[in-house]
Here is the input.
Amino acid sequence: MQLTVEPVLLNQSLSNSPASTSAWHDVVRVCRRICILRERGQGEEAERLRTTELADLIAARTAAGDEREVATRLEAIFAAEEERVANAAVVAELLLPLLTQELRAGFPLSLGRGSATAAVHSEGSHVGASAPPQAQAPTDIAGFIDQMIAQDDDVFRRAS
Amino acid sequence: MSTATLEKSPSANNLTPISVANPAPAAGRVTASKTKAMLVGFDLGTNKSCVLAGPPTGTDILVSKVVPTVVGYVKDGIVDGIIAGNAQTIFGEDALRNMLHVRLVAPVAEGVIIDHGAARDFLQHLRGLVDPAGTSEIRTVIGVPANAGPQAREDIRRCAYGIFDRVLLIPEPFLAALGFRDDSRVSQPNYLDPVVNSLFVDIGGGTSDLCLVQGCFPTSKDQISIPFAGDAIDELLHQELDRVYPNNGLSRLKIREIKEAHGYVGPSRKPLEVKVIMGGKAHTIEMGDTIARACNTLIDKIYPALTTLIERAPSDSVLTLLQNIVITGGGSQIKGIDAVLQKKLADDGYEAPKVKLAGQDYKRYVAIGALKAARAARENQWQVLLG
Here is the structure.
């Protein structure tokens, strides 16, 4: 998920020159990417980022200031970003099904059901998302198809 | 059937997900030039496929084809003129007729796609049969085996992408029931509507699919798919013939012909003499026991599934259900299969069972049902393949 909030810089006692502020912004961004990768279970990629890009940025910061203060600030940044990403993940989990339904209801394209070839129902709404797989007997073929789609959605929800 | 002239496109075997931002050449994409809509009911079978097509409204069927599900890629070095139009890829009967000159590929096994490139070529060929000018928007309902999992469905969608404009995948046994239904008699009080209460046994090449249809769309519990059908019988026949007549040289197609001509279930029928050519010489061999053993294995496989589904039916529906057990697919042509199943049910105490054969249109019922579904589907029920 792409976060768009501005990074919060902690411990402003360190150099507040524009160049320094920009450099700490870079640190915050890299820390955030690391936290997102960890949240997605991409630990190896997160570690690679930590030992390369972040290490380079921290080395530059350490060269320009007190090593202990840099470490403290880095720890605070990580704590803030971890919390932010965790909160975002919860929000995403809550919003995703609602957005999926909304998109189905009012937009021709819905989400791709995790499929490599995304297959989406075309337009308007169908009874699917919240309808039980075995509702009342349909009176026409389209009603059967509605039931089939509801069953498919149910299987998809359980799998995801 | 006309000879196809489609060549294998470079992307035909490309299995990587197709990008939405960079769509494949737009054979099936809706464009301003597509002024006409055509609906297709499609039964993608292991051995034979059926395609029916017609306009969105009415009941007209403009295209009706049963095509062996096979693609022939012409071998290198074939002299010009051997293959009609010097085509590089041919399909169905054409491919079988020219089997010496082509590499035959069966895109489907046990009801699921096993060769994506060949399957895409085959679907492209079928689209060409339906819409030779390539100017129509084509929407198709495709039958899938009762137990087709997400991957099998995904494979079909992947192959259909860029060929058909919109698709809908529906389990085959349900489509068979829909196709078998006589719409003109639905309102008659004595008509046993197969969509309201029936048990369909669809015996194809790769799978035997059984399905309870009781007025609601069947759930997974209402369907059983068994990976034993026509091809498995052929395999048993082949094994037995190889044992008795080593190096007989009989092809699988010949074995299938023998089964289709002489297949039966029940007690052994003798004499059952079959004339075959082995090593260029005609032989007459007794096949009564061999055919009985192979075909009766089908009964052994499907009967437990049949009784399982009967027992799953609500008790107040089961008496009517027992009157409406329908066998369709190529397996319905095995002599005596209806009588043997009915007798087994009666012998096991089921109340006055009646097993019937779908009839001469057995190859087309799934596609008929698919076309009916296509005509009835609402706009929002069609799936758009995004790649």
DSSP finds four helices and one strand in chain A. The helical segments of chain A are 18-39, 43-64, 67-106, 141-159. The mean pLDDT of chain A is 69. Chain A touches chain B through 33 residues (CB under 8 Å).
